[in-house]
Amino acid sequence: MDPRMANRKTGILTEKEAKTTKRSVAVGGVRGLMLRVSSSGGKSFVLRRRVDGVERWLTVGRYPEMSLSQARQAAAQMKDIEEPKKILTFIELFDLYLNDGIKTGKWQREFQRNFTSCRQEVRARNRLVKYFPQSLLNSRADEVTKQQLAKALSPIYLDKPKTARGIQTDINLAFRWGISMDLIDKNPAEYYILSRLLPNKRAIPVPGHIPFLTPTEVPRLVAALIKNGSFLARPIMFAILTGSRTSNALFATWDQVDLDKLTFTVPREKMKIKTASFDAVTPISRRLADLLTEWGRVNPDSELLFPSPNKTKCGQIYEQKLYRYLDNLDAADVAAGGIGFKDPISGRVCRPHGIARASFTTWAKAPAKYSHSIFDDDMIEACLDHFNPKYGGAYFREIPVEDMRPIMDEWADFCLSQ
Asked: I need a surface site. Which of 3, 316, 333, 344 has the fewest CB within 10 A?
């Protein structure tokens, strides 16, 4: 019988209890010492130890040939003999932590669509390798100090606070895991201690709104996307023409798109607002349906509308790739004498989410300026899957798809007007 399944008692096991027990029990006096009872009734003393993070059970002796006091003495001597710990570098410890997450399903549970179990840990490792110096990553894990971590994290906090917070969380969890596995003895990334060495919150820039485009510039961007012809342009156009969040566009599947009914349906659990009692349904225009038909199914083995063209293990396109693509498109337009594709307020390069949500709303609520029909405010918000209780959204029981359709049709015509 596995001693881990034992009925572990508290206190010290007596000779009477040892003779009569039919279950594996803790002996007491030495941590990890058990009296194991086999299926045939034989009894022996075993000691739990961890070697390189792996739990092992070492035989101490047989009972009753070895008494309880002798077993405790022998186990104490065995505990005094320290098993040499494997010397791990910082990055090796981090990789072991990530691999353990794969085995236990941690990353798969965090993966939005559960297509594979790799996306989260790939991003975590790539982020660490990109921003931390190689000399620190190759340092012994048990010699890494909080001062070294703070020095590496501080400039990231001042430039990309969200990224820095993600890295800080990852390394804290990795060191905590290493301690639980007896691979290291201390955690230099303990959150409250390390945070005292990082930049003051007042020095960390507050992120602004996601960059958008003035609606008049959206047709020019869409024309540039079509002319460029990159596969990365497709999910951007899909997000814009459906008013979708970027993640919903990247994880869109063929079974969510109905080209006959001209709808795009996302399960409620995949939406930001999860309290509604119905799935999110967005009408798609005939022009977008024609584009999807023209693009076709790129990878027959993938259910994604826009699988990664590189056939990566993860299957889907990373959102950061879309950002880099738009940055390059902006730079190319500026180099050609254009004004680029920047937010008129912040001056930053536009992002799919900003165009699909902010540019769309700005356009929809200004019919005189952009020469389109007057739309009901509730229907505009419904196109964005916004259901505000103040205007009765709490009582919606189904999506008013056909009332939303004229808005999305005119928005598609506007975006594809150049």
From this structure: 344
> Tens digits of per-residue pLDDT, 61-101?
889 888 888 888 888 887 765 555 678 899 999 999 888 88
What is the CB neighbour count within 10 angstroms for residue 155?
12
Distance CA 418, CA 241 (A): 15
- Give me 22's structure tokens: 């039919």
Integer angstrom CA distances of residue 316 from 226, 250, 282, 321, 322:
21, 7, 22, 11, 12
Length of the chain: 418
- Taking the C-alpha atoms of residue 407 and residue 417, their distance in angstroms, rounded to an integer, is 15
pTM: 0.60
Closest CA to 174 of 114, 133, 127: 127
What lies within 8 Å, CB to CB, of 99 at 6+ separation is none
122: CB partners within 8 A, 6+ apart: 313, 314
Backbone angles phi, psi at 414, to 5 degrees: -65, -45
Please provide residue 307's backbone torsions phi and psi, each rounded to the nearest 5 degrees: -70, 160
Q: Is the dihedral of CA 403, 406, 407, 409 positive or negative?
A: positive
Handedness of CA 354, 358, 364, 366 (dihedral sign): negative
Paired tokens of 288: 């977008």
